[in-house]
């Protein structure tokens, strides 16, 4: 039995789309489950739109989410001569022909199809004509001689048997009149040369699969197995596109979604195993199969992504969470200074409380990393004379404490409540504003302990509070 080989074949014409990431994930997991290989093929033959920056973004995105491909990237543009060679072989063995229709003729055919409200199919005008009838001065395209009679059945590993009338597949172009190969020819030749055993891709490729199967058959190549996975839709039920908000991995990384959480979410988007929701990397590989892929489109649900991320924040090892937070701040916020890192690390247990993203943790801990307090303009108005007295009284009593803990701070807070004839909020709120700049934030004991004695005294001595 041949060793399983799959591939992910994006075009570097834009940032990698979330739907593409899931396709890559399913291919990678299937290969790893089957002890096979997974390859990255960069389909960069669209010279106008292909950019090196997009290729780098694709590679970076796959690496970020934990998908590692085998070997070097396979660059399609370096294989064009092989594609052209196959086109000429198909021409030679009667499975392709030169078509001399001008662009005006083709446009006229398309116009007639639009008027009749039927899909355009090339009328096969040059299919059986002799070369001697060729007009001078027109560079021909090469078209594949598609089957006209009968039906074809695709034994799809996800969709089941899919049948199509052969006459609905036109004699598609395999070489343009400038001599460059088209997608269906290039993809077929590459998949054959790369020894692909399984082609797993979006179900918008089904018609391409029928065309590619015919190329395989015409060349007497061994056919791979095909699996077409349903597309991802927006929450409104529309097909997700690159123009949609939160459609690339960078969109998720920026708000502090962690790679393991997003990978777990994408795995469960259209695939299931019993009633299990949370899969670590090894479990993902162990349990993944094509049988668990559903036949209906899945909806991308941001609230579910946030919920999954919150689960990971709560449950992963805190030193791992800290490392990811530091890296996140380095990329998207201000880098955490070395003297503040230890304070953040010690405070993670409460900073991560109710946080759905790394950005939430950063916002919860902003008061620790800040060198200067940035007071909320509305909240500072709450520091009236009564609040100032609370802050002053607290400062006096606070300096009598040697070791900071809830046990040593609680009696001070309770005494202030009593002596100032107020409640917990009447003491906690002015102190929170004084120490963090906002009336919102972690519990007052956590704030004081996390800042340490020296920093608390420094902040309470702020002239704005006097």
How would you describe what is shown here?
The structure is a single chain. With 466 residues, this protein is mainly alpha-helical. Helices cover 47% and strands 11% of the residues. The chain is built from 20 helices and twelve strands. It has helices at 18-33, 52-65, 80-92, 103-116, 183-193, 206-218, 249-254, 259-268, 281-287, 302-315, 318-332, 338-351, 358-364, 366-369, 377-380, 385-398, 406-419, 424-436, 444-451, 453-460; strands at residues 5-8, 37-42, 74-75, 96-99, 141-144, 151-156, 160-165, 173-175, 198-202, 225-229, 232-233, 298-299. The strands form five sheets. A three-stranded parallel beta sheet has the order 1-2-3, with helices on one face. A three-stranded antiparallel beta sheet has the order 4-5-8. Helix 3 crosses helix 5 (183-193) and helix 16 packs across helix 18.
Question: Brief overview, please?
Answer:
With 466 residues, the protein is mainly alpha-helical. Helices cover 47% and strands 11% of the residues.
């Amino acid at each position: 039995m041949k060793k399983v080989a799959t591939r992910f074949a994006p075009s570097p014409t834009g940032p990698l789309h979330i739907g593409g990431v899931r396709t890559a994930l399913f291919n990678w997991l299937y290969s790893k489950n089957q002890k096979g290989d997974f390859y990255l093929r960069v389909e960069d033959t669209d010279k106008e739109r292909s950019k090196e920056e997009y290729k780098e973004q694709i590679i970076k995105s796959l690496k970020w989410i934990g998908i590692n491909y085998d070997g070097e990237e396979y660059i399609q543009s370096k294989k064009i001569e092989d594609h052209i060679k196959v086109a000429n072989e198909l021409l030679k063995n009667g499975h392709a022909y030169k078509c001399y229709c001008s662009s005006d003729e083709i446009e006229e055919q398309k116009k007639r199809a639009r008027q009749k409200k039927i899909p355009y199919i090339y009328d096969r005008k040059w299919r059986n004509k002799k070369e001697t009838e060729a007009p001078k001065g027109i560079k021909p395209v090469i078209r594949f001689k598609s089957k006209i009679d009968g039906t074809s059945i695709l034994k799809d590993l996800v969709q089941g048997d899919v049948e199509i009338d052969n006459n609905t597949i036109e004699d598609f172009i395999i070489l343009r009149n400038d001599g460059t190969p088209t997608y269906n020819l290039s993809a077929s030749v590459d998949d054959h040369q790369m020894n692909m055993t399984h082609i797993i891709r979006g179900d918008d490729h089904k018609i391409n699969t029928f065309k590619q199967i015919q190329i395989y058959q015409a060349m007497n190549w061994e056919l791979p197995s095909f699996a077409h996975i349903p597309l991802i839709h927006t929450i409104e039920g529309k097909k997700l596109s690159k123009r949609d908000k939160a459609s690339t991995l960078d969109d998720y990384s920026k708000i502090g979604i962690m790679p393991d959480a997003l990978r777990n979410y994408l795995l469960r988007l259209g695939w299931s195993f019993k009633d299990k929701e949370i899969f670590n990397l090894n479990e993902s590989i162990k349990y993944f199969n094509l049988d668990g892929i559903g036949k209906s489109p899945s909806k991308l649900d941001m609230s579910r992504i946030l919920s999954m991320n919150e689960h990971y924040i709560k449950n992963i090892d805190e030193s791992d969470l800290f490392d990811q937070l530091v890296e996140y701040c380095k990329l998207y916020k201000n880098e955490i200074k070395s003297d503040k890192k230890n304070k953040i690390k010690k405070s993670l247990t409460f900073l991560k409380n109710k946080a759905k993203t790394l950005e939430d943790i950063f916002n919860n801990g902003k008061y620790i990393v800040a060198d200067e307090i940035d007071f909320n303009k509305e909240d500072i108005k709450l520091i009236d004379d009564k609040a100032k007295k609370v802050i002053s009284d607290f400062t006096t009593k606070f300096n009598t404490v040697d070791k900071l803990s809830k046990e040593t701070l609680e009696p001070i807070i309770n005494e202030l409540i009593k002596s100032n004839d107020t409640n917990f909020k009447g003491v906690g709120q002015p102190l929170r504003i004084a120490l963090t700049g906002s009336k919102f934030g972690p519990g007052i004991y956590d704030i004081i302990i996390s800042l340490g004695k020296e920093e608390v005294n420094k902040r309470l001595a702020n002239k704005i509070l006097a």
